[in-house]
Amino acid sequence: MCSPIYIQNSFSESPTSPLMIDHIQVLDSFKTPYIQHYILEMPISDISSDLTIEVGSASFALHKFPLVLQSGRIRKLLLETKDTKVSRIYLTSLPGGSDAFELAAKFCYGVNVKITISNVVLLRCTTRFMEMIEDISEKNLEIRTEVFFKDVVFPNISNSISVLYRCETLQSVSKEVNLVSQLINTIVNNACKEQLTSGFSKLEYNFPPRPVQ
Question: What pathway does the annotation place this protein in (predicted)?
């Protein structure tokens, strides 16, 4: 039988009485508002780590609850393991390594991860690997990176070129998530629009004025 995990029950009649939840039961019901309320309200820092994530040479002592709420990959790994008391997971092929995982983990814990031109490729590739998608949790990290691409990257040629350059360090994954082709098409389309706009402006400027009747 699985070892129980004790967390404070904010819905209990007695504020000091613990709620005992089997971690497999939690994994099966983590999308309920009840469990989501727990993750937002419970003092994570006061609870001992119950899961260590190994990424390359880096180790992260974390908690299962916030991770399974946001990451489909972590959820699957915990559900598929034969050892119900698993306390260590190895992510050997995570794009971007420990730096990428640290950003993803912060997001899982509710930390505001600032998306920038410099890290949006890393985050986009990481969210694909970690399966941080809308089917797992609303307003997850993947959709936030997509919004950033739509609002900040794609409309601007300079930003698109900068992001395309950063795809080089994660080339295989960038192609897999269709980033490279999207960026190239966007750059070409925007360049054509600028050329057309510039051409029309010159044509209008050079066109002889209509004679006054």
Answer: Protein modification; protein ubiquitination
